[in-house]
Specification:
heterotrimer; A alpha+beta; B mainly alpha; C mainly alpha; A: alpha+beta; three-stranded antiparallel sheet; 18% helix; 22% strand; elongated; B: mainly alpha; two-stranded antiparallel sheet; 11 helices; 68% helix
């Protein structure tokens, strides 16, 4: 047999109240080992309180070639932002 | 609009010039990909091989405090190798191939690790000088254009901040110690100084890839600029230790605002690069043994994972 | 007198962690895969952290010039109280894992008892260490299963390691005078009480891993009272090298 351990993407929650963030990847034979490896590789300096592991092949990514159509149309939708709306200065907390 | 008249290569270079990072799935020139695979993997190999000269002293540290510090440091190097291999893997090379390139001797790694660590003071000198030189390079690379590489470097620089201090503290203890200890420290400096100077690579005029590397922000300063920075920051540190850098031409140049230093023995440099250092064979032998003897372990874990997956599939079926 | 007994008990606890940590330290840079290398070093670091806690306490008891390092490194071979098990060499990864597993299950049981000790220092050390050792048990257990139930090759290697190392396991539970004192005085663990739980846990896990404990084992005893295997001298030759070659210096 000649099969390399698959790659996993590792997401760490640094403390409760914060979201999990991608911090890197590693190799592991199964999900249990992926969690253990992630603990040993990515939380040696108290970086985390919770770990998610996802085998890389299960991630679907957007195609960068489509970045124009996917993301640029949002650029002129200024009405989605609070600063688009003019209010008198006396109005607070809005 | 204007973009349409630019070639893909030109658009790509524009992105880099504008400070944009390149990510794994972005279009990139084949040469950019190849150069990065080579550089990132060499960098990773250096971390992995770099574990060995210091690992050599883990069982012989003089105190328990030094033992945990050294263990943690060598372990970090494994971590850094892993981060770098992961960054290289985003460009389409596998862990298996990376190992194969290193173990077969085809890939290069930093020549500094082909020198032997013969005394405890070497743990001090390696941390102080070798890590000191490496950090100068790595801080620069946190701003490199390839995103996964830059992110790996940020993480590595954060973690490495204790490595150099660890080494310098060892030197400090020795230099504040007995005559025997101080001699040990001086001897280590004598042996590690010039190899550390060589870590920045050949002189600029002998370094043909510098221009391209600068364009892609793999490099922001030339080899000679970085080497000068290293000398300037290290000389005062040696003075505090009270030991002497083995270079009779070393002296402050008021006009330049830098230290002048002597000529590097480039013949020795190329000899070690070509595999003729004292430890080249042993380093590769150790890596090959670890990898070959680990094969049945890796295979077993894969087989077990498959079995478990099949069992789960049967249960849900 | 009481202090001396407690001191000796600290040596029992510390020496096992120390010699095992030293063995794992030899592997740093030589693991079967990067991730596994890092994991084993973590265990070594945990163990040396515990050793420092035990020996700092021991140095206080001993007084005078004693330090964690003089206690760790400046004893003669027969004065070390670790078991045969932890001084066994890193024959291959299967031996590393079997040695680890046989020790971890014992270690976890002992620490749970120390958490209830009448000695506050031991309670504090045990409370900190138990979290580390719970993880060690998880780590070595899953690897026993992977290797036992992995490939034919790994199964055979794992079974060989179990067969080779099991003979050193029961020494963990053969109480020395110091350990009898510790159990009776409520300072330490009652090993007789822990032994059946140990046997049950180890057999259950090995069964799950499709492995078997050897039958008719002739168990080896003696290291804990100072009669070590031939391995020990070489371990100490490296471990003590600097302190012996350059005595009375600060590092």
């Amino acid at each position: 047999m000649n099969k390399e351990w698959p790659i996993w993407e590792i997401f760490i929650r640094s403390k409760n109240g914060l979201e999990h963030r991608h911090c890197g990847s590693l190799h592991a034979a199964d999900e249990e080992m992926a969690i253990q490896n992630a603990r040993d590789v990515y939380t040696r300096r108290q970086e985390g309180v919770s770990i998610w592991v996802v085998e890389s092949k299960h991630i679907t990514a957007s195609n960068p070639k489509k970045n124009g159509e996917l993301f640029e149309p949002a650029a002129d939708k200024v009405y989605r932002h609070p600063t688009f709306y003019d209010l008198p200065d006396e109005i607070k907390h809005m | 609009m204007e973009n349409k008249t630019l070639s893909l290569d030109e658009q790509f270079q524009n992105r880099i010039d504008n400070g944009d990072n390149i990510e794994a799935k972005d279009w990139m020139p084949e040469k950019y990909r190849k150069t990065h695979i080579r550089q990132i993997s060499q960098h990773g190999h250096s971390e992995i091989i770099g574990m060995l000269p210091e690992g050599n002293w883990i069982t012989r540290t003089p105190t328990l405090r030094r033992k945990v510090a050294l263990l943690a440091k060598v372990q970090d190097e494994a971590g850094h190798g892993l981060y770098l291999y992961s960054a290289a893997e985003t460009l389409g090379i596998s862990r298996e191939e990376l190992n194969e390139q290193l173990n077969s001797g085809r890939a290069k790694y930093s020549s500094i690790f082909n020198y032997p660590t013969v005394s405890w003071a070497d743990m001090g000198a390696v941390g102080w000088l070798v890590d000191g030189a490496a950090i100068i390079n790595q801080v620069m690379l946190t701003k490199t254009s390839y995103g996964p590489y830059a992110r790996a470097m940020v993480r590595i620089c954060k973690e490495e901040s204790f490595h150099q201090r660890q080494g310098y503290e060892i030197m400090l203890s020795l230099c504040n110690g007995t005559e025997v200890q101080k001699a040990m420290a001086q001897d280590a400096l004598n042996r590690w100084w010039w190899p550390s100077m060589m870590m920045f690579g050949p002189r600029d005029e002998d370094s043909p890839n510098t221009e391209q590397s600068m364009k892609w922000k793999i490099k922001k300063k030339t080899n000679d600029e970085l080497r000068q920075q290293f000398v300037d920051q290290t000389v005062p540190q040696a003075e505090i230790l009270g030991i002497t850098i083995p270079d009779k031409d070393l002296k402050w140049n008021e006009e330049r605002g830098h230290y002048d230093f002597g000529v590097i023995d480039w013949e020795e440099f190329w000899n070690v690069v070509k595999g003729n250092g004292l430890m080249n064979d042993k380093r590769l032998k150790d890596r090959n043994e670890a990898w070959d003897e680990g094969k049945w372990v890796r295979d077993a874990a894969s087989a077990y994972a498959d079995k478990q997956a099949t069992k789960r599939a049967k249960k849900t079926a | 007198m009481l202090q001396e007994k407690l001191y000796n008990y600290l040596l029992h606890l510390g020496d096992n962690s120390m010699i095992l940590g030293q063995r794992l330290g030899e592997l740093c840079g030589h693991g079967p895969e990067l991730e596994t290398d890092i994991a084993l070093t973590n265990i070594s670091l945990d163990l040396f952290g515990q050793v420092r806690n035990y020996f700092q306490a021991a140095a206080q008891l001993k007084g005078g010039d004693a330090t964690e390092d003089s206690i760790a490194m400046l004893r003669y071979e027969h004065e070390y109280r670790n078991t045969y098990l932890v001084e066994q060499p890193n024959e291959d990864f299967a031996h590393v894992i079997a040695r680890q597993f046989f020790f971890d299950v014992y270690h976890q049981l002992v620490l749970r008892e120390l958490m209830k000790s009448k000695n506050e220092t031991l309670v504090a050390i045990a409370n900190k260490s138990i979290k580390e050792v719970d993880y060690h048990v998880d780590f070595s257990s899953t690897w026993i299963k992977r290797l036992g139930d992995g490939t034919e090759v790994s199964h055979a290697k794992m079974q060989t390691a179990v067969d080779t190392l099991w003979r050193y396991s029961m020494e963990l539970f053969k109480a020395t005078d110091t350990e009898i004192w510790a159990a009776e005085s409520g300072v330490g663990a009652d090993l007789d009480k822990l032994k059946p739980i140990y046997l049950e846990r180890v057999s259950a896990l090995l069964e799950e891993a499709t492995l078997q404990l050897p039958e008719n084992t002739v168990f080896q005893y003696g290291a804990k009272t100072g009669m070590h295997s031939e391995n020990m001298g070489f371990i100490l030759a490296e471990f003590q090298y600097m302190q012996r070659a350059y005595p009375n210096m600060k590092w």
